[in-house]
Amino acid sequence: MILITGASGQIGVDLADELVARHGPDTVLVTDLRMPEKLRPNRVYDVLDVTYMESVEKIIQQHSIHTIYHLAGILSATGERYPELAWNVNVNGVRNVLEAARRFECRVFWPSSIAVFGPTTPKVSTPQSTVTEPGTMYGVTKVTGELLCKFHTTHHDLDVRSVRFPGIISHAAPPGGGTTDWAVDMFFQAVRHRHYTCFVTENTRLPMMYMPDAVKSVLDLMEADGDRITIRTSYNLTAFSFTAGELAAAIQTHIPDFSVDYQPDFRQDIADSWPESIDDHHARDEWDWQPEYDLDAMVQDMLHHVRIRIEKEAAEAAIDSDLND
């Protein structure tokens, strides 16, 4: 059986959908700290706190897990507010998963992030092997996780694979406390209110990726021939880069009366420490990584799905209101 930790998060929702579609509903176990309010059909659910080794080992044994997608983690902005929590979940959690995977001979995917880079890292076409001196606790935990992955591969022959995700844009899960949340929330506010107050400056440029490509990259990497995988820390990965102003302009081609004002907060400093663009040629050469969405295609598809989601939420709210009257 396949285990997904942190399955209620941004990547987990879409990844679970794709894994169920490929392998069937009885082959994927989705877990998180608590059960989601709305249970999806054709899902096997359980509760898991990855900071407890006993819980991780128990669930692997009970469900005969052979592959783990370890997505549970605290994101960047939340990690700055609660650094001890970020360390416990992001470092102790991945350590527990890797140790349990070694014991029970599971394959593992774990997501790193461009947060491993910092102010001393080259900002344009950031190379695969470069300075990793992050300025955030989130980045510190990701660098530590990368080294743990490499250690377990080198010393225990564990098959661990990882990518350094850029900002991920998705309509399926709400923003979860990340520095790139503006690139998601802008779409919802554009459809709902025709206005958005952005917490980074108009010229803030960051590497990004649409969720279907993020899921595709995970599955492409996990399906790749192990002999082709040369990087056991984490692969650089990207699809495109854009500024907050460029995203707003792209949305305005579909919603002309949409407006944005810019009021940077503490997340601006985090964004400023990250790269503007990524060199991911190792992923493209070694396991044939190729994104399918560019900025315009992503904007069009996001707006379509955001409108559907907002209409569905409004209809459900109206039904609930009628039932309570």
Key phrases:
about 325 residues, about 45% helix, alpha/beta, 11 helices, 7-stranded parallel beta sheet, Rossmann fold, globular, 3-stranded mixed beta sheet
Q: What percentage of the residues does DSSP assign to strands (E)?
A: 15-25%
Helix content: 40-55%
CATH architecture of the domain at 2-166 and 209-239 and 275-293: 3-Layer(aba) Sandwich
Write the H/E string, N to C.
Answer: EHEEHEHHEHEEHEEHEEHEHHH
Low-confidence stretches: none
Q: How are the strands of the biggest sheet laid out side by side?
A: 3-2-1-4-5-6-10
Number of helices, where a helix is a run of at least 4 consecutive DSSP H or I residues: 11
Top CATH class of the domain at 2-166 and 209-239 and 275-293: Alpha Beta
Oligomer state equals single chain
Mean pLDDT: 94
User: Termini distance?
Assistant: 45 Å
Quote the CATH topology of the domain at 2-166 and 209-239 and 275-293: Rossmann fold
Q: What characterizes the major β-sheet?
A: 7 strands, parallel
Q: Say how many strands there are.
A: 12
CATH superfamily of the domain at 2-166 and 209-239 and 275-293: NAD(P)-binding Rossmann-like Domain
Shape, per Cα inertia axes: globular
Class from helix and strand fractions = alpha/beta
Rg from alpha-carbon coordinates? 20 Å
